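Shapes recur. One chain:

:::
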Amino acid sequence: MTDHPRKGTVAAPGSPDFALHTLGWRAFQDLCAAVLREVWAQSVHAFADSNDGGRDGAFYGTWQQPPDPIGVQDVPDGPFVLQCKHTKKADTTLTPSELSNEFDKAQALVDQGLCSSYILLTNARGSGTSEATIRQRLLDAGVRYPLILDGQWICNTIASHQRLRTFVPRVYGLGDLSQILDQRAYTQAQALLDYLKDDLATFVVTDAYRRATQALQEHGFVLLLGEPGAGKSVIAETLAMTALDRWGCLTVKAPDAAGLVRHWNPDEPKQFFWVDDAFGTVRHERHLTDAWSRHMLEVMTAVHAGAKIVLTSRDYIYRDARPHLKESTYLRQNEQQVVVDTAQITATERRQILYNHIRLGDQPRDVRSAMKPYLPAAADAIPFYPEVARRLGHKAFTRHLKLTRRGIIDFMARPNDFLREIYDGLEPDEQSALALTYQAGDCLPAPLNLDSAQQDVVTRLGGTIAGISRALRALTDTFLRQGPLPGNGTTTGWSFRHPTLEEGFATYLADDPNLIELLLSGQNWRTILSRIDCDTGNQPGTLLRVPPSLYFRVIEILRIAEYETQGDWLSQRIWHEFLTDRCSDKFLALYTREEPDIVAHMAMFTSFLNVVDEPRLLARLKQANLVHPEDHQRIVKRVTKLAVESPDAGWT
């Protein structure tokens, strides 16, 4: 970092710098009033520019202590006087001599009974000596409770309150917009790491972790591959923690390639980017892979500038994604150097992982003692999943476990069977809480504010609102996590602690078509189409299989998707992929009957055939005998025309 930060830069983590000196006096006063209204949730009134009697603002009434006062605690009762002191000079310190007139005005206000607490806001810096002098002068004037809030406090407040930036859009012009978002992302990442401390406590340094560290050191980039529950995210979490110490990197947990590029700051080379499930959460999502191909130049520019990047992916998802990554991308060219398979865990490492989870879990002493003779055999179970080892250490997952050699080995080797029994044995309130979390998609926001679809789910499962609140607390740290919402570091919510827990719950829900219909009604189309499967068999990553009785409901969702994605080919890819890869012949026949123009619409594809979606979807419809011969001829002519005129070799 330089000694003199540029406008809109971060001098240190948590210390943003906005060019407040470029504001006019009135704009600064309005900003101060908005800051206090937003942060303290009080009815602050700003006075006119002239004849304010020494008051830029005031507040009357009983002070209600805000939930997050940003370091300002226990402000007493009023009346309050708000005074703003703005300077057009950058990097200046407020001195008592600049406030000589204000001290006299403060005394007059005290004599009139209009001032008990005096809050001074300034865009200048405030040194300890000058602040002490100003406070004493105000006390001498009769003010009972003086408070000085300087420019750095205001900058910190702007950076940490998204709602404030929304309601006062002028602040976006005071600094680099990407830097504002980065600061929020850093805060979010720190909160994520805080609530992942249990994972870090049980972490075992494996060969996969060592190789990932080496790849990150030598290449600045690593892709962690493995089966569900193999420990990819825990390795990424640990790399994020060590990056703070080892390289001084600020951590950003980005949702995808576009999010990574959006948060990359060329003026801040030491950044650590962590992207979980880079190519899809439970199945390959082509639009995510295409985004990596498109943004790989910016991604590798960030790496060459000093950034560190960690991606995770399930192995079967990456196998599907790899052919769609351009041959020229860094990932394809350097695959042997930057791809780490987390499944290679030695016998010693497996036993240490299992031991840590049992020791740090919540199993009673007698249960741990009964398990002890069988733990070496459990660690040798094929396959071995660290996530399942974690569950063995928690009594919430072992209600039906037989404490025998066979019982413990089966628990490790057949986790889905045990999950089904566990979900079936939960109380209605607990089932309702999990169903609401599943329905919400990425995260169930806190506090709960249930809409009609959510209330229907609760009613159908026999839960109660009061009971759900208790259940969410009880399920946290076992089935659920509570932490920041994606992309929002200030609002928290609940999500499944691990994707395999979510998949197991979806399998449990699939036995109740009535409940599936309610879940389909409560989500946006993007979430729905990424989760469901219309009866194509046992594909890996299927979250919720929709029975034929609900096919019409899915068609309604597809109509919404088609309408909302007109002209947006990247978003269209989501529903194109759904029709191509996750629909049975029976569903497609029903869909084409309800949407008879779909073939003609898809036949208007453009170059290049190996990139656009329509040819694959048409091929799938042809496979289901849903393309009439005349339509097929038109498609062949279209391909021929593009092959000659483009020229387009995609037909090969």
